[in-house]
Amino acid sequence: MDARYAVRRHRNTAAAAMAFAATALGLGWLVLILGSLLWHGFSGLSLSVFTEMTPPPAAAGGLLNPIVGSLIVTVIAVVIGTPIGILAGTYMAEYGRHDKLSSVVRFINDILLSAPSIVVGLFIYQVMVAPMGHFSGWAGGVALAVLVIPVVVRTTEDMLTLVPNSLREAATSIGLPRSLSITRICYRAARAGMVTGVLLAVARISGETAPLLFTSLNNQFWSLNVNAPMASLPVVIFQFALSPYTEWQSLAWTGALIITLAVLVLSISARALVPTGKQS
Amino acid sequence: MVDVALQQGSVVSAAGAKRAKVLDRLRLGDVVFHGLTRSAAIGVLLLLSGVIVSLVWGSLPAFRKFGFGFLVSEQWNPVTDDFGGLAAIYGTLVTSFIAMLIAVPVGLLIAFFLTELCPQWLRRPIGIAIELLAGIPSIIYGIWGLFIFAPVLQATLQPFLIDTLGNVPVLAPLFSGPPFGIGMLTGGLILAIMVLPFVASISRDVFEAVPVVLKEAAYGVGCTTWEVVRNVVLPYARVGVIGGIMLALGRALGETMAVTFVIGNAHRISTSLLAPGTTISAAIANEFTEAVGDLYTSALIELGLILFVITFIVLAIARYLLMRIERRIG
Predict the structure, then answer these.
(1) What pTM did the predictor assign?
(2) How many separate domains does chain B show?
(3) DSSP result, A104-171
(4) Chain B positions in Cβ-Cβ contact with residue A19 (cut-off 8 Å)
(5) pLDDT tens-place string over residues B55-75
(6) Which of B36, B41, B50 sits opposite A105 (nearest CB)?
(7) Domain span holding position B173
(8) Are residues A240 and A274 both part of a single domain?
(9) Which range of residues forms the domain containing residue A19?
(10) Shared-domain flag, residues B89 and B35
(11) pLDDT tens for residues B8-41?
């Protein structure tokens, strides 16, 4: 009896030790990745990164055009993706909470949420780049919008579902039509959560590379023309990191650091907006 | 109600007429808003069908030329326009398999730690840290894997594997050849790090959903913590855990940038895991913009279609399982 109990206890200790080690491993990776990013990225971080264009091979320069390009493409994506996402999420939470269409959309949306982003790039290439005959910032923005939509749909629906029904009843009882009770009352009640959704979506797309590779392509030069190929930070990192030039590689690290910091700030502020910490 | 107000208002006076107009506008707004939201919801469906249709359309030329032979041919020769997807499909499956082999046990152990062992005040910070790991863009994993991880593997883990497992009869072919640093194994390991947070956070959520009375009862009859997790929590949370694993698998299969940096981009199937290979997404990312000729492009799109079909099935199963769990909880 005693010996068997000892075995069980040892087994328990061993399992606990492994669980502890696994957690340490997970946290260790985070520290390792962030650490090496800071180490390599900070050494290249200077004012010229934000004021100069991407350099030709083996020369010094900055990342101004890809940073601006990334911002433009992200804005396009958010402007296109957010309204569609919010409207679709609104339908699912307000009008058709239990109908067939909503459950199908919910299922499909969840699949879109984790669908491979490179396939989205292929899709936009087929429907925009090929017919237009050239790569463009528009195509990149639309490709990212396709990634924004499912995130926003999901959070909008979740947040509107959390709005207490008594609010809707109160709005209806004073004679507000449904559309107004949704836009004036429910949206207001769910605002923090919906903003969180948009922030999470921006965090998600700001590091996306695959869908931009053959939609907005890249641009070595300063360009604000969204109808032409446009540089973006992730694509430039991809190109520079795989190059043999140390100047380019160090710029790639710096770019990686900028993206990571942006994403971390976005996702931490998204978390701060929803104090319960419940996220999809 | 609105109707009553409308009829009365329109008869009574000028103020009533004005009121009727407002109500009419409101009613119109209602219909428009309903229609807008509904079409946005349908738009999401169209988006998915659009993806499928465009991929099928784009891959038609390659499909006409190679038929189902595309799936079993290892040839990938842009010069002679002879394409087969087997090497890329093989690479995708193998790297994802390696990733799951590592991420699943480690992720489950993290969930075990977070739900049963971790002091209460530490749970939230550690949970958030693990989720931040999930938020890091994949290109960061890629650049990190290429410059930091691969050289370290080349100097340590890979020679070690060659010296030890490389001499074990059955495993020897898997660990033969020189240590390149980059290759299938490195790709799989990077993927493991990437999907680990998904497995861990979903498992934690379903572990937490296990009714406390069940666990208390098990503790009450004298189970150790490990026995409670092994015999009560895991069986109860089984469906959700499998759903989480499938979700992570879906991510691993479709992941592009992290793998592209470290896979080596060689369109061939090597028995050795240390050798360079390619995956579907890496092949598309590397070659698509440089693909000359319709057939080359079409072959890459067909690869994309195959990837989409595989991930769609995996994700659909995942969502189905997780939906079952949600229904049971909520």
Answers:
(1) 0.90
(2) 2
(3) HHHHHHHHHHTS-HHHHHHHHIIIIIHHHTS--HHHHHHHHHHHHHHHHHHHHHHHHHHS-HHHHHHH
(4) 109-110, 112-113, 116-117
(5) 999 999 999 999 898 998 888
(6) B41
(7) 72-329
(8) yes
(9) 2-43
(10) no
(11) 544 557 888 898 998 888 889 999 999 999 999 9
